[in-house]
Amino acid sequence: MVAPPDNDVIWARSLHHAHRGSPALVGVSLGVREGEILAVLGTRGSGKTTLLQCLSGQLVAQQGEVWFNSSPVHTMPALVRERLRRDRFGWIDPAPTLVPELNAWENTALPLLLAGVSRRAARTTAMEWMERLDIGACARKRPYALLRAEQQRVAVARSLVTTPSVLFADEPTASLHSQDRAQVLRTLTAAVRSHRITMVLATHDADVAAVADRTITLADGRRVGSQAIADAEGRAACSLSV
């Protein structure tokens, strides 16, 4: 077992994983630096979600290594990986998965509340993120009363409320219309960059990938390409303004 480079927050080597005998990852290796936005580009079924799940400790790859800083995620007990996901990682699903019994600010604050933060302090932090994402006015609404774009913004705010070290975003704007998609992606990217959060962004859309500093491409579970994006913020502004 070889420790990762010092400047990589997330590092993976030779990941192999299969679902019911069907290969999902075949020898994928990568490293992600602190504060970097890495886009994982690929079509449906290319292995993007499985890769993010392995990197975040939701899945343990059948072969290979995953490191977070100097800690081997692939050998951690399940409870330790669960704490790591709660305390250091954030996650955004393609569609918002909110608790219907909770209002918007409670959904946003949920990771803090589960970690034992007082209700008052959790609400203050949740409201700060909701204001930043332009949904402060929705704080007391239940999920059923929110527009789809508002629900997804709540999900984004919830993923950021702990200021995670690494944010895993699995097609975070795929369910939104183009205008809402651009707005959510713009605010997400700005928040990540201002807080120096490392983000691994899975997408099938080259325009979405343009917000990243670097992209890798998956096809049939294999890494088939890599590209550094010069002036990522400028490229993102151009693509999002279309």
UniProtKB/TrEMBL annotation:
InterPro entries cross-referenced by the UniProt entry: AAA+_ATPase (IPR003593), ABC_transporter-like_ATP-bd (IPR003439), ABC_transpr_LolD-like (IPR015854), P-loop_NTPase (IPR027417)
A molecular-function term among this protein's GO annotations: ATP binding
SMART domains: AAA
UniProt domain ABC transporter: residue ranges: 10-242
Top-level taxon of the source organism: Bacteria
Pfam families reported in the protein's UniProt record: ABC_tran (PF00005)
The UniProt record lists the keyword Transport: no
Protein name per Swiss-Prot or TrEMBL: ATP-binding cassette domain-containing protein
